[in-house]
């Protein structure tokens, strides 16, 4: 797996869009693991073990399973339509 660089930019989380459950609109999820048997021959410990991979998230309300990676790829293919911007009048001169 390719190592990802840590982001250096500080992000104000309050400005970011929440991910919501596409079925019920809930904002809360729990991680769901997939587990792999790792044979002793290839295990770092040298003994049979289990590798846990956090693959999915589960909606805490309707229990729908979500695949975050697939959601990112889907949004890159179909970006949401940008909501109309709110233009505030500042009382300045019009050009
Ligand atoms: Zn849900």
Q: How does this model look, in words?
A:
With 95 residues, the protein is of the alpha+beta class. The protein has a domain at 22-77. Helix content is 11%, strand content 24%. The chain contains one helix and three strands. Strands 1-2-3 form a three-stranded antiparallel beta sheet. A hairpin with a 5-residue loop joins strand 2 and strand 3. The protein is elongated, with a radius of gyration of 21 Å. The termini are far apart. The protein binds zinc ion. The site of zinc ion (ZN) has 8 residues, from loops. Zinc ion binds at residues 21, 23-24, 26, 59, 61-62, 64.
What does this entry show, briefly?
The chain is of the alpha+beta class.
Brief descriptors of the model:
single chain, 95 residues, alpha+beta, 1 helix, binds zinc ion
Q: Ranges with pLDDT <50 over ≥5 residues?
A: none
Beta-strand proportion: 15-25%
| Cα-to-Cα separation, first versus last residue | 55 Å
Largest sheet: 3 strands, antiparallel
Please give the count of helices: 1
Tell me how many strands there are.
3
What average pLDDT do the residues reach?
85
Topology overview:
Elements: E1 29-38, E2 49-59, E3 65-66, H1 68-77
Antiparallel strand pairs: 1-2, 2-3
Bound molecules: zinc ion.
